[in-house]
Amino acid sequence: MSELPLPPATRALGASGIEVSPIAWGMWRLTENGRTVAEAAKLVHAALDAGITFLDTADIYGFDGSAGFGDAEVLLGEVLAAEPGLRDKMVLATKGGILPPLPYDQSAAYLRAAIEASLTRLKVDSVDLWQIHRPDILAHPQETARVLDDAMASGKIRSLGVSNFTMAQTAALNHFLGNKLVTTQPEISPLRIDCFENGELDQAMMLGLTPMAWSPLGGGRLTAPENARESAVAAALDVVAEAHGVSRTVAAYSWLMAHPAGIIPIIGSQNAERIAEGATALTVRWTRTDWYAVLVAARGVPLP
């Protein structure tokens, strides 16, 4: 039976020369429940100790609809200030371009301010990856590209990415950039499979973009299926999970990582044990038969 290769020990972020772990940890919910600096530091250490060196945050993380904008970055910044040595052990990514209640702003003035504000909150001189969080339809990609290239030239940003962009929006921005995009961050999971067949991942491979998958567990629905389709996908994942002695969660991460585009799943858990558990996905090897069984369950209809 044809086996797919295991993920490599590290992945490159496009052509940036930056090497990252093949799985990432995201901080969307870092500030939940009034988490302290010490508690946040424990989670950072859990990721790093498990070999997860790629950490992804955003300026909007912590915002509850009325307050908290920037709070996740502030909390991580306090962790880094308390232990300066941690910064060199991680590849730090953040995002910007959402300005409640507009909701999106990629005008030159706002982007410059957003980048500076993130660096201030994180208490760092530069970030390894800066991503536009969602596309601003009212911003000309040439104007956006000029600001991002300037930030690269000044050393504030080491590489560039986009999140939630359409293929056309990605291509347009990349066209105007002197420093080409290295990542794209769509929603991808065994329950959200659009990108496998709509061309998004094909474009990523063509342009040399490393895909980062947000919500790789389908917003938690994989762990608690709510309908027949979700149950069928869970059952297909369980076949491989049980064969390898891992959880369904780990099987889901590894299923994404088996794709040739080099998808990097972003672990959303704020639980130290679950973060560490995610790293075991690197040991799960899929056969083509089992991989396609998950895809067919997710499609709900046979392949052509």
UniProtKB/TrEMBL annotation:
InterPro entries per record: AKR (IPR020471), AKR_Detox_Biosynth (IPR050523), Aldo/ket_reductase_CS (IPR018170), NAD(P)_OxRdtase_dom_sf (IPR036812), NADP_OxRdtase_dom (IPR023210)
Gene3D superfamilies: NADP-dependent oxidoreductase domain
GO molecular function terms noted in the UniProt entry: oxidoreductase activity
Source domain of life: Bacteria
Protein known as: Aldo/keto reductase
Pfam families cross-referenced by the UniProt entry: Aldo_ket_red (PF00248)
Organism listed in the record: Erythrobacter ramosus
Domain NADP-dependent oxidoreductase: 22-290
Annotated Gene Ontology cellular component terms: cytosol
PROSITE patterns, sorted: ALDOKETO_REDUCTASE_2
